[in-house]
Known about the structure:
The protein is of the alpha+beta class and about 220 residues long. The protein is about 30% helix and about 20% strand.
Amino acid sequence: QAHQQQFTVLESPPVALLALQVADTGPLSNSALRAALAEAVDRSALFNVIFQKQGAITAGLLPQSLTGYAFLFPAGRDLSRARELRGGLTVPRLSLAVAGDSAMQLAAQRLALNLQEAGFPVHVVQAASAPHPDLALFRLPLVGNAPSTVMETLLRSAGVSVPVLVQDSAGLYKTERDFLALHTVIPLLDLPRACAIGGRVRDLDLRADGTPDLADASLEDAP
């Protein structure tokens, strides 16, 4: 809409990870079912349709720009594999909690459709009315410059305590890979902040956290 109205859109680096949190108790205590969920999500649909190609598709916790290895986590959808992992198990109706703006609501509805195609009956509920959902859609903050710090902060925001004791890329990759293998957090998209500006605005930049930097900004006189 901003582009259609002739605004210039400034976009920050990734400031949040869109992720699906999966309970490891109750009907999803079976690790194969959680793995099936991870195979069933359609990140491309979220990226192209819901978020209008803002940000980047990811299956890793940390952005590619921060680690250099995020591409090693496969992000494609494999519905056949999801059905194979689910096997013949009948899954009870699952709750998917979401809070936030219309984009988050639409993303939750899209994920519910994805999971239903894999044999998981899912209904979307508001987070305020579901204190212990089976699934929850979150934006998790990507804060800091050191990958280990960003990972710890992100997981803490998801309610997970996983101390990151290594600093080198190989150690970080192993820590991330081992955690993601639990399928209790399923990364979906790296999301930026965006700012639409009119044609009279000059030299406005966005900081790394997505907030406007007005230091050199100016406003041209109206014609």
